[in-house]
Design a protein that fits this description.
Elements: E1 9-13, H1 16-26, E2 30-33, E3 39-42, E4 48-53, E5 63-69, H2 72-81, E6 101-102, E7 113-117, E8 123-128
Parallel strand pairs: 1-4, 5-8
Antiparallel strand pairs: 2-3, 3-4, 6-7, 7-8
Length: 129
């Protein structure tokens, strides 16, 4: 049987300096440099994610990080005030309100959620607890 001694998640960006600034300053995460290799993000849970530069980076079209919040309206307001656009979906698949929040209205369909992008175009989300 396969036995790992550790695990971690990672994703690519096209500009490591822009990613470092965004994740540290805009999102307030602890960011540690790993030299030219990349950066380590410490998530609120204590888990770490490795972010590395990739010259031919293609943004993830799916949600790569979800941030659980107590008040999604306040979180979206704070993101918008920091210059982050949360209204990135407006089609029938993900109908959102003026703030970019999808409010399913039925707990079986999932929580209220708003998606946004990092500087590299990767999709992130805030989700109501």
């Amino acid at each position: 049987m396969f036995t790992a001694i550790d695990s971690f998640s990672g994703f690519s960006v096209d500009d490591l300096d822009a990613a470092r600034e965004f994740y540290a300053t805009t999102l307030g995460l602890q960011v540690a440099s790993d030299g030219d290799m990349g950066i380590h993000l410490t998530l609120p849970s204590g888990a770490e994610v490795f972010v590395y530069a990739k010259p031919n980076h293609t943004p993830a079209s799916f949600t790569i990080l979800n941030f659980v919040v107590d008040d999604i309206d306040a979180a979206v307001d704070e993101l918008n005030a920091a210059g982050v656009q949360t209204k990135i979906y407006s089609d029938a698949e993900f109908p959102t309100d003026a703030k970019g929040i999808a409010r399913p209205g039925n707990p079986e369909w999932g929580p209220d959620i708003a998606w946004f992008r990092d500087p590299a175009g990767n999709v992130l989300a805030v989700i109501q607890a």
